[in-house]
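Recall that a protein's primary structure is simply its ordered list of amino acids. Everything else, from secondary elements to tertiary packing, is in principle encoded there. The following example makes that idea concrete.
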Amino acid sequence: MPSIKNIPGAYRLFFYSFDCRKPKHIHVQRDKITCKFWLEPLCLAKNCGFSPKELSVIQKLIKNNLPKIVEAWYEHCG
C-alpha cells in the first residue's frame, strides 16, 4: 500500500496494488475512516465515515495536489 509523500495534513493518501486495473483513483484515510476518489474526473467514489464537510476538505486537498497524485499513480501502476 504505497502512500503519497509530501502532502501535508491529517490524511494518508494511498493506492492498493491490486487496484491498478481500475481507473485512476486515490484512497484517503484518517484514523479508521476511509474514502476513495476517482481522479479523472475528480469525484467521490466511496465514503466510509467522513462527514460531507470533511469530504469537501479532502476533495480540495486532492485537487490542489492532483499532478503529484497522478504522477504517483503512474509510478506505481504504470
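The chain has two helices and four strands. The longest helix spans residues 52-64.
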